[in-house]
Amino acid sequence: MKRLSGFRRKRIAGPILMVAALFTIGTAFGVASALPSSQHEMSSGTSTLVSEGKAIFLRGCSSCHGLNAEGGGIAPSLIGVGAAAVDFQVGTGRMPMADMSQQAMQKKPLYNPDETAALASYVASLAPGPSAVTNESLNFERDGNSAEGGQLFRTNCAMCHNFAGQGGALTNGKYAPSLMGVEPKYIYEAMVTGPQSMPKFTNTTITPQEKLSIIKWLQQANHEANQGGASLGRTGPVTEGLLVWTLGIGILIGIAVWLAMKAK
Is it the case that residue 32 has pLDDT exceeding 50? Predict the structure, then answer.
C-alpha cells in the first residue's frame, strides 16, 4: 500500500493512468460496437430489399390489392399472409392475373426470383405470417416417411387432388391442379397458406414433419413407373370406364353388325 501511495505522488502517474483508462474504454467500445455493426448491415440489407419490393408492388400489384396492400373490391388484403403466400402465388405465375374473378392458373412467372424475393420481403414486413422456404431447406428425403405421407394425402388431399395427385374438378367451375412435377417448396407453401379454394393446414393440423412426408410421397408418385402400361392419366374410374365403354362396347357392336351382315 505504501508503494502504491508513493507511486500516486509521482508526476508521471497521472498521464499513465489516463492512457490506461483511455485504452480500456476504447477496447471496450470496439468490442461492444462490433455486433451491432453487423446487425446494422443485415438490417440495412433487409431494408433495401423491402424498399425494392414496395416499388415493385406499387407498380404491378397496388391497382388490385391497394396502395398499402389493404385489399379492395376485387383482391384480398395481403397483410398477414406472409412471404410464403407471395412466393407461391408469384413464383408459380398465378399472380399477377388479369381477371380476379377466375381461378388463378399456373403460368410462366412475370417476375424473376430476385423480384419475387423482394415482393415477399415487403409483404412480410407488413405483418407476421408464414415464411417462404426453399427446396434445399426441405429435407423431405431424410425427415419424411413416404408411407405416412401417402396415408395423410389420401385422408386430407385426395378428395380434391385425386388419390394419385393428378388433380380433379371442384364446384362452380373450379378445379384442384395436378401436383405432378410441382416443386417441393410450392407444395409446402400451399399447405401453410391455403391458396384460393384450398384449406390452410396449420402445424397443429398437419405437423411440419408430416408435411415433409406428404411431399416425399408425392415426389415418389411423380417418378413411379406404370407397371401396367398406359396409366390413362391416373384420373380414376371415370376415364377408365369411358375407355372401356367407347372402345370395348364399340368393338362388340362392330362384331355384332359384322355377324348380322354375314348371316345374310
Answer: no
